[in-house]
Every structure is written in structure tokens, then in C-alpha cells.
Write a structure and sequence with these properties.
The complex is a heterodimer of chains A (191) and B (429).
Chain A: H1 2-27, E1 50-51, E2 60-61, E3 84-86, H2 99-111, E4 117-122, H3 129-149, E5 157-163, H4 174-180, E6 182-186
Parallel strand pairs in A: 4-5
Antiparallel strand pairs in A: 1-2, 3-6, 4-6
Helix pairs in contact in A: 2-3
Chain B: H1 2-19, H2 22-25, E1 28-34, E2 40-44, H3 57-67, E3 71-74, H4 91-96, E4 101-109, E5 115-123, E6 128-137, H5 142-158, E7 167-173, E8 178-184, E9 191-196, E10 200-205, E11 211-216, E12 223-228, E13 234-238, E14 244-249, E15 256-260, E16 267-271, E17 279-280, E18 288-293, E19 299-304, E20 311-316, E21 323-324, E22 332-337, E23 343-350, E24 353-360, E25 366-368, E26 376-380, E27 386-393, E28 396-403, E29 409-414, E30 418-424
Parallel strand pairs in B: 2-3, 2-4
Antiparallel strand pairs in B: 1-29, 4-5, 5-6, 7-8, 7-30, 8-9, 10-11, 11-12, 12-13, 14-15, 15-16, 16-17, 18-19, 19-20, 20-21, 22-23, 23-24, 24-25, 26-27, 27-28, 28-29
Helix pairs in contact in B: 3-5
Classes of the chains: A alpha+beta (191), B mainly beta (429).
Amino acid sequence: MPKNWIAPIHALALAAAAGLILAGCAASPTQEQSPAGVEERKPGEGGPETRGAKPGQVPTIDLTSKKQAASPLTDPNNILSKRSIYYDFDQYDVKDEYRPLVEAHAKYLRDHPDVKVLIQGNTDERGSREYNVGLGQRRSDGVKKMLLLLGVKESQIEAVSLGEEKPKDPGHDEQAWSQNRRCDILYPGEY
Amino acid sequence: MSRRLSVRALALAALLLAFFGPAALAQLSIEVTGAGAQRIPIAIVPFAGEGALAPSISQIVRDDLDRCGLFRTLEVPPLTPPPTEASPVNYAEWRSRLADALVLGSVAARPDGRFEVRFKLFDTVKGEDLSGVAYTLQREQARTTAHHIADFVYEKLTGEKGVFSTKIAYVVKRPDRYELQISDADGANEQALLISHEPIISPAWSPDGRRIAYVSFQQKKPIVYVQDLQLGKQRVVANFKGSNSAPAWSPDGGTLAVALSRDGGSQLFLMSPDGSNVRRLTSSSGIDTEPTFSPDGQSIYFTSDRGGSPQIYRMPATGGEPQRVTFEGSYNVSPHVSPDGKRLAFIARHNGKYQVAVMDLATHQQQILTDSDKDESPSFAPNGRMILLATVIGGRGVLSAVSADGRIKQRLSIAAGDVREPAWGPFIQ
């Protein structure tokens, strides 16, 4: 019963508050978005576009806008947008073809010492789940070690394992398994 | 005959479950796919007045005894007046019906709304009253009471404790979520402990049956939690940098063994069940994981690839040099020691198939118990007779149980869902 009472009161209160805010904003027409303000930002992407801010208008934060500041981490033309390292069966060393990828992320992390990454190691579905957690860890530890050798700080990296639990390809053949023997490098907001 | 009938009834029940409501869909059903060579023929007469208490207590006792593979329950035509545990027993007549044992009982409603269930077990061959029990119970305790009666009968006639009133834990994978569930050993009474969008693995019962340790990926990495069954509270016990996994309880409940990658690699550590007092147990450059204590608490068995391929090792629980235990084949994992400490169940890979094997720890003789090819997570029943495991049939995860001699096989399947990661709970006082 109380729910039925409270809901309309909340709605009224919200409407009243919104009215007050609108009135307040209208009184200060050229208010800019403060850098320290509460701006919702999709992590890993550039800041969302802010429209409006003309006299008599309030600024709008449009999270649906496609036009966002390009981030090298998500720019498909940048090697930093490549995050996955694949492995042969029972293998844990980073193959030569993935060295440029790891080196690019090492450089980015050196240039952005406050950014942290999570490296998730994965295995195919064969064998014990817990042993596969160990195997996935060996893969992610390998990528971590390479990043450390390339000058990234230890505090910037966490290497973990998902074992066989999160297959990218749910199939049960070598085609699927080759997709699932993998490490992913994830930046904040991507996991 | 009766076994076949009850299997058919179960199949029908499974079919019905497939068509009706989501609550019914969650239920595990058990199918017996093999039985012991010599089964004790036993008559369980419908308890006088049991219609007042649904489900039928005598039927649950019959189902329990039939499924375990050591008994053959006989069809009993309706008797008028229905005999009770106090009725005189004509042993010769029951012998002529080929019953070696007989259970008689009664159910009576009490004025306070509770019920009284009484039963007696008789050895018809010796003409002997093997005694019985009287229970006072609430309506919702009917099923539990029936399991206790089955345990009593089982223990009197086989000499070992029954496990019908124990619980099992397992994980159900659904299209959009994972559920950590517990149920009675027959799959009834299932309850979800944890529902998550992320995987859950490795449930492990505390020795007192009150808590379950498990690994949940809800924070996008493996973290070990302990959950109190009564309070329903999830407590983080190992969340170090890296992966935290493979929890196992010491037999006294005072210590958890876990696999942590915090110092690099995957190594074994011991800790208090509240997460304090963490100390490292193994130091290898390989993967050390899947620790499990021997029942006397003196040894820890675990999986390690320190020798080049994953094999099972044993070491003192206080630390020390590990000794290799498995030598046949290049992949032996997931150890679990029998309650008497004499046998080791594990998963062996053989010709690309992952199957449950049992090793006699004194002679090191080993035997493959299953003919499936994707077995996982074997755990002994607390009386050591059956081994619960997960396997895959028709692309779907099912639970299965096999007797330690490989003769008796049961399959527990869930109508809509993929079941895995079973763990058989302890005897509960």
C-alpha cells in the first residue's frame, strides 16, 4: 500500500526539483560544463559531445552521439584497438605475430602511467575447470611479464584467468577452441 | 520389475516436467542405469494413514532404496486393514512373497497440527524385529523424515550409513545465468544459493554442512567466497590480485586450501575460512591447483604439472615435499579421497576421453569407472559407496553417480539446463 502513496509524491518532488533546476539554469545562460562536474563518460572512449550552451539554452550531454572524440584504444585503425592474443594448443608464449600488439599497449601504458589494464587468460573447454584456470593464468602471466619487460609498472597490470568459463566461440571443435585459447587486454570500463 | 516400473514413472515424470511450469523444470530427476548384482528384496508396505501427509512417505522410502541399487522393492497389494508397525507379523507369509525384509509404519495427525510417523523394520528370513523409530514432524518435514527412514533401513541391512538425507550442491548453467543450487541427494528440494550472470565453479561443503565455499566470476575474475546457508550471506575470503580459486576445507573445518596466483603462477595456500592467516603451501614453477584434504587432515592431494604433465601429488598438510601419486597416462586431475582414506577418485584422460578413475592408495591399482568421455569433478558420497560426477550427454551437462566398484550407475538430469560442478555434502548431525 505505501508504495502507491510514495510513488506519486516522489514524482511530484522530482518534477518540482526539475522545475527549480530549469529555472536556475535559465537564469545563468552561459554556464559551461565544469571539468570537475559529474560527467558520465563511457570509459575507454573520448568525452561525449556536449551540444547547446548557446544563450538561453542548457548544455546537453548526449551519450548516444556517434561523434565522440577518437580514442586510440577504440580507433579501428590503431593497433591499440586490437586486444586479443591467440595461442596454439598447450602453448603459453606470445607468438611473434602478436609482439607489435603487446609493444603498442606497453607504450600506451608507459605514456599513461595512471591507466590500469586487466589481462584475462582463457582456455578451450577440454579438461578440468580448475586446471584450466591455472592454464589461463599462465597465459595472462606471460603477457604481463612481457609488458613488465617493456617498462610498464607492475601496479598498472592485473593478470587473471577465466579458465574455460567464458568461451568466445561456444562450439566444440578445433575452430572454436582456437578462438578460446586467448588472452584479452581490457582497459577500465571494458570489464 | 518394480525397479523398471519406477524408472518408467520417473521418465514419465521427466516428460511431464518438460511440459509444465518453470518451478517444475528446475527439478533434478534420477534414472538408474545399472544396479548391483545382488539386491535385497524388501517390501515397504504403504504406511497406515499416510494419505494425511503428502508426499507419500513409503513411496519416497521405496524410491530411495530402489535408486541406490542395493535393494529391490516389491509390489505390495493393498492390505485391509492396513497394517501398522504394531501389527503382528506373519514372517512365513512375507517369506513366501520373497521379501527378505519388511517395513511397516503409520502416520497420525496430532492435535497441535504436527504429525507422528512411526515405523519398524523386520528381517523376515530370521523372523526378527530390527526395531524402528517414531518421529514428530511438521508437514513440510515429510520428505526429510522419509529419507531418514530409508537411511535407517539401509544401515540396518547393509551395515553402512545411508546417504539419503544428505545434500548435494551443483551449478546449473542457463542461457542467461548461472545458479549455484543445493538439493536433497535425490534431487528434490532444490534451492538456489547464488544466481549470477557470470560463471560459478568449484562449490565445496564445509564439514558441518553449514557453509559452502565456491569460486564466482561476478567481479570478472575468480574470487573465492564462503556462503553461510542459513544466513545467505556471501563473504569474500580470497580476493588477491590475480586469480583465486579451487577452495577445499580441512576435515576439522578450520582451514581452507586455495589456489592463488598472487605471487605469480598458480600455487597452493592455506588460510582460515574467514580469509585471515594466509600462508603459502607449495613452491613450484608449474601449476599447482585442485587441493583436497585426506579425511584425517594429515595430507593434501592436488594437481600439478611440475613434472611436465598434469598429475596428482600428495604432500603433508603442514608443508613439505610432494610425492607423485598418479603415473599412468599424461593427464590425471581433480583428486578426491574416499571417506575411509583408502581410495582416490580422479579424472584420467585416456584416448582423448576424460573419465572417472579410482585408485587403491595402498596397491596403486587403478580402474576406470565410466564409459563417458567428458567426466568432471568426482566427489565421494559421505559413506564412500557412490561417486558423484558431472558428464556431458547429448551436448548437455548432467550429473551422474557411479558406485566405487563401477557396477551401479545413476543419472541425475535437469529438464532444462546444463548441470555441472557437483559436490556431495557431508553427513549432517
